[in-house]
Amino acid sequence: MGNSKSGALSKEILEELQLNTRFTEEELSTWYQSFLKECPSGRITRQEFQTIYSKFFPDADPKAYAQHVFRSFDANSDGTLDFKEYVIALHMTSMCKTNQKLEWAFSLYDVDGNGSISKNEVLEIVTAIFKMISPEDVKRLPEDENTPEKRAEKIWGFFGKEDDDKLTEKEFIEGTLANMEILRLIQFEPQKVKEKFKEKKP
Length: 202
Description:
By secondary structure, this protein is mainly α.
């Protein structure tokens, strides 16, 4: 899945990314040049991904969440992302359609990759999300979701599952589409990220 290390993005990858994301050729070409400056090898490591993610959230601790996002997009589990995987990650976490986002969200919450989600895995991701929410915003959260434990309990309750039950991808997607409250509780879409994406336009 690698890209050439030359200064130009291959026509095939460019066309594929334009087809699968909402990014323009201009945006993709500009980001590719920046990507090569940051990662001359043409691949980004987990640590480099965390560093870039941290720039989006200077006032928070996105390390744990960034690790989970990285894992969910490291398709071949080689510990790196190439430019194509990186752009798909940006797209899926910011502006793709709900169904696509839920497929990605399932892989994010399926921490051990066994094809189902446990309540503990929900708590692990929600805990990572809370590290990115400012104390002021946490204070404004409803009483029944103002801690990771409460939010995980609320999400699990919406699915009607017992503590030791598992959630399949089908149950996760159908349950979330049927209840927009679940969608609100499981995702984290900081406005700052979207603003950063816009800033990267040449």
